Amino acid sequence: MRQKVEFYTWAERIASELKKRKVKKHVVHGMWTPSGYFHLGNSRTEIFTPAIAAEALKDAGLKTEFNLFFDDFDDFDKIPAGVKVDKKKFERHLGLPLREVPSPSPKYKNWAEYFERQIVEVVDKFGVKPNFVSSYDSYKHGKYDKAIKIVLEKAEEVSNIWEEVAGKRPKGIPIMAICEKCGRGLTTLSTEYDGTFLHYSCDQESKGIMGCGYSGKIKPEKGNAKLHWRLHWPATWMIFGTTFESGGKDHFTPGGSADTGKAFAEKIFGIQPPLLVGTDFLNVDGKKMAGSVGNVISMADWLEFAEPELLRFMYVTSPPRKVINFDLTTNKFFLLADKYDKAERIYFGKLTERDKQENEKRLEQLKRQYKISQINLPKKMPVQLSYSYAVVIAQTRDVGNKKEVLSVLKSLGYEKIDAASEKRIFNRVKLAKAWIDKYAPETVKIKVVEKVSAEVKKSLSKGQKTAIKDLIEILKKKLDGDKLQYGIYEISKKHNIQPKEFFELLYGIILNKHQGPRLGPFIIAIGIEKVKKLLSQI
Ligand SMILES: [Zn+2]
Hints:
By secondary structure, this protein is α/β, with parallel strands linked by helices. The chain has 4 domains: 10-131 and 230-280, HUPs (Rossmann fold); 145-227, no CATH class; 387-444; 454-536, Arc Repressor Mutant, subunit A (Orthogonal Bundle), CATH 1.10.10. Helices cover 45% and strands 11% of the residues. It has 22 helices and 15 strands. The chain has helices at 10-19, 40-59, 87-91, 111-120, 135-140, 145-153, 155-166, 229-240, 257-267, 299-305, 308-316, 333-347, 360-373, 387-396, 402-411, 419-438, 454-459, 462-475, 481-494, 499-511, 519-526, 528-536, and strands at 26-32, 64-70, 131-134, 175-177, 189-193, 198-201, 205-206, 209-210, 215-218, 225-227, 244-248, 275-279, 282-284, 287-288, 324-326. It has a 5-stranded parallel β-sheet with strand order 3-2-1-11-12. A 3-stranded antiparallel β-sheet has the order 5-6-9, with no helix packed on it. The longest helix has 20 residues, at 40-59. It starts with 9 loop residues before the first helix and ends with a helix. The structure holds zinc ion (ZN). Residues 179, 181-182, 184, 187, 202, 211-212, 214 line the site of zinc ion (ZN).
């Protein structure tokens, strides 16, 4: 019996799980502390996992909203490596909320906003439109007052759960008063709550930051006090009605903040915790992305070398709990683009012989993955240009000249290219050019020679020279890339030359190298006239 397929994508599985909850509206959260650069790895956890889940929920007919939470009330606890600021000048702000720290650049209002721009300014280009929520504003507007009150009333129970689940008891009352004198929360110890006022002393040391020594009392409301992260997280679920959230996998260690969060949600705030998913890392070229290593790629960087749909596709095709190993500086990068193009063909029912070998389930899966990856779903199958071939065109043609770029496609046999496809092709060649300039390995870099090297000329035998004359003849026939490839192969056989040897020889003539891209299509990319001229120099 054929096994029934339940889910084709991880997002559909999540949607089906959430469908069981009887809620009026699903609220999907991503949460990020704007303390430093937002890289592509963060985008997986905080933006795309929730955004894709939200789309699956909407597809399942459920009312859904997606909030991207900026934890800008968090403490400025260090100057991250790679952020170029005057250390002395900024050190005096350590311990303040990120929103109250000056911006590294005068163009932005504060530290938090400076880093948030890396999301706010580009996220819609990826087809994602979250509601941005600021924790700083939420506290200041009293949104967390109720949660703080609950924690104060159940302080003993909160501390007990904390100790039980995390193995450590918080010091004093588990609410952080914001010191009226120095504005810091992480250096205060709350000692007593009298029903109206929270008494505190600012005399603690945290992360190397010292309290100012002041003692006082505040009304724990409207941002005068805040919750520790372990309580802030479940309190947020209660306040916003969160039903799904993706978080970095470091929160999901035993006794970590996901465990305490769930316990506080149920026992203190009296809510069902959201469905939580710990999202794994995105490794680039075998390394975890980290600001200090310098391999940080932002969402804006991505748009320089690849289409936004490709990033969505990468995330759609990898379940959140699986690490993604992404190769950017090797030609393995082409595999992602090839897989995407294949999914597109399958979606539009234009399968190649090889595509047809896939089983039905896999075909259906690729179809759906393609659809979810779209920002504007094309109405019909676009003319495709593979990324690897775009890389060849980008190195042999003027990428700024649309006519010239498209003439290559015409030589490949595409008679009619619609306007949307033209735009896509031209854009991909430009992206490929940017990739070559910034990331490509030497092995894919090519430069067509102007003059055949004397060494190559001298090395040719009489038989080889005759074979080349034959090649000049078939170049006149205006064959497409595949037929030309086959033609070259036939010529070598006719002249009793090993095909490998003949191809190497031709790469030597054209590139002064032993190898290169697939020769037939490559000659078309360079331009038949240009190749004929080179061959005539023999
Ligand atoms: Zn203080």
